[in-house]
Write a structure and sequence with these properties.
alpha/beta; binds pyridoxal-5'-phosphate; 9 strands; TIM Barrel; globular; single chain; 42% helix
């Protein structure tokens, strides 16, 4: 495969369109587009598709399933040693080791138990891991993350967050959310807004910690997320095409 591979050209075109949309959304939000990092979500995509993506200029991938990802990493690292991999999906504690050893960042840290498991594995392999705390800002039961939909109860989060912050090998960088998807992105705006408010609240409550990163927004709603302060947008379908399950 080379840079004239049709898939690679298609991906390149998709990225260019998205970069323009990111720039416009940042402008509307009074923000610098350079503060918005684009993660290409490659779960369920083959190594061939990822290779085409790299040829189109992508170096940062978001993945949901550790075993699947490690398989892709092992194949691609020969050709491309400098790729960056972020874990964005719910992680079972028993798979913490794979993430501790192989990933560059974890967006979906959602329990004290998982923080502890990651901490132990990180010490054993001599690494630090930047993490984001996943917050459930919508109240949907199926969603992961700490219960954060009711602003009156944010104080209840404090003891658990203290325990996460006490894990030395984890470097907390901010928050992540995956609100319910809606065809109308405006419906998601209040959730993004809530995550940013929570970020400000935690910034006051835990002023020693950097809370600067906000990971929010997918193919469906990244523009609104950027208007509301996203620093990471996680986009799969709009870059790599629909996933086959
Ligand atoms: C799959 C996934 C995305 C990307 O979704 P698209 O609709 O394909 O852009 C973003 N974030 C998380 C947590 C995901 O699991």
């Amino acid at each position: 495969m080379d840079s004239t591979n049709p898939l690679s050209l298609q991906i390149k075109e998709n990225i260019e369109t998205i970069q323009e949309q990111i720039a416009a959304a940042a402008k509307r939000g009074g923000r610098d587009a350079g503060d918005v990092k684009l993660i290409t979500v490659s779960k369920k995509k083959s190594v061939e598709v990822l290779r085409a993506a790299v040829q189109a200029g992508i170096t940062l991938f978001g993945e949901n399933y550790p075993e699947e990802t490690v398989g892709k990493m092992d194949i691609l690292k020969q050709e491309y040693p400098d790729l960056t991999w972020h874990m964005i999906g719910h992680l079972q504690s028993r798979k913490a080791r794979l993430v501790a050893e192989r990933f560059d960042m974890m967006h979906s840290l959602d329990s004290v138990r998982l923080a502890g498991k990651l901490g132990i594995a990180l010490v054993e392999c001599g690494r630090y891991l930047p993490v984001l705390l996943e917050m459930n800002v919508s109240g949907e039961e199926s969603k992961g993350g700490w219960a954060a939909w009711d602003e009156k109860h944010w104080e209840l989060l404090v003891p658990e967050i203290e325990q996460v912050l006490a894990v030395n090998a984890l470097i907390v960088k901010g928050l992540m959310a995956m609100p319910p998807l809606s065809a109308d992105a405006e419906k998601t705006r209040p959730y993004f807004c809530r995550l940013r408010k929570l970020q400000e609240w935690l910034g006051k409550r835990f002023s020693q910690t950097e809370w600067g990163e906000l990971s929010m927004g997918t193919s469906m709603d990244f523009e609104v997320a950027i208007e509301e302060g996203a620093t990471f947008v996680r986009i799969g379908t709009a870059i790599l095409g629909a996933r086959a399950y």
